[in-house]
Amino acid sequence: MTKLFAFIALLVLAGCTGPSPTPPVQPVPASPSEASAERAVQPEVERPEASLTLAQAIDIALANNPDVAAAHWDHQAAQARHDHIAGSRWPRLGVVGSYMRHLDEQRLLPVRQPGDPAILSQDIVSGDLVVTMPIFTGGRLIHQIQAAELLEEAAEHRLARNREELVFNVSSVFFNILAQRRVIQSLEFSVRTLQEHLDRVDALVAARKAANVDRLRTEVRLANVRQQLVQEGNVLAVQHRVLASLLGWEQADATRLVQGNLETAEETSVPELETALATACSDRADYLAAQSALEAQAHNVDAARAGRSPTVVLQGSYGGRWAAGSTTGTGDKLDDIGRIGLAMEIPIFEGGQINATVQEQRAHLAAARERLRKLELQIRLEIETALLSVTSSRKRIEAVRASIVQAREGLRIEQQKYDLGTGAIVDVLDAQAALLETETTYYRILAEFQTALAQLKLAMGHP
Description:
Outer membrane efflux proteins (OEP), five-stranded antiparallel β-sheet, disordered N terminus, efflux transmembrane transporter activity
């Protein structure tokens, strides 16, 4: 008797205690199938030793970026939810055990036939193997499973969109770094040019062919360009930090220079607006995710409406009953018992819960429709903006490219005029400033053009 009570106490206490808690900040252990799926989505990419190309940066970002990793785990969670709901249509098999202490003696087994011997006891222990299977739910399970499948598809599309946005962000920062390096090179060239001009001015002042004020003006201009150089160098360092963050690196390595070309070798074709819109509606991942979410919500409405229908389940059990303490009567203290049958539940009054659930799901459906309509308007705006940016940047590149040659020739002429004593120092400094502004503008427009092309691909849903 003591062993029996100890066993029962162990079962009770085992239900009150749990395993060691899951640490929230440590990596989540994955099953072998999940680990292989994770490696397929996030293949290991070696960190380059020296230079970094755009393709390498994209591969590293897709493998290491935490946003992509989080979207991947969200997709895994959606798959698990689908498996959980899909498993509810299969039979449930479990073991149920109990110990009951009654105030009065109770029959160990129900009456099977008249005249059966009865054994009574205050302490009854039971153990049953119980099976339950849904037979009819009014379509609730079917709609829940279909909704879960669509939500899984939506999570997969969101993962794809997250990867596309990451590719765009990496490309944009990459092009800006290339442009910023060219800007710094232009500033360094201006510093060298001004320093050489300052040396010539010193020689002319020593020969009494130039005034000392010319030297002062050149020094002021040189100091201004040098502070610009420091400022632009800080911008480049910040851009390296942003790129490292997108790549999933904890520290930025400015010595690892990005390698690429801002200028396109061939003419890039740009689609028409309606063609781009049609492509976006068929290929853009976030639009497909919104459509799947809308269809899933429609199934959620049908599942909620099925709550008004009867529910029929198959129930069966087989187990044993035995007396744990003193008994009264004749018969065996241990015997088996079983049952099988159908159970039906018809909702009559639920306090308005079913109607409220249906109204809630319908409101979610209306909200999902409006979010899809908003996304359609946003897609049109993004494509129109990207097309205008591509066209504008291309025209500005053609205009500024020709002015660079003119600015360089103008600076050369003004320097020669000043050396011959027929020009003014102000004209030389203005020509140098014009050349610097033209070159920096040109490189930044090149980065804007490449970013606009990437923006157009992102808006159309191209990988």
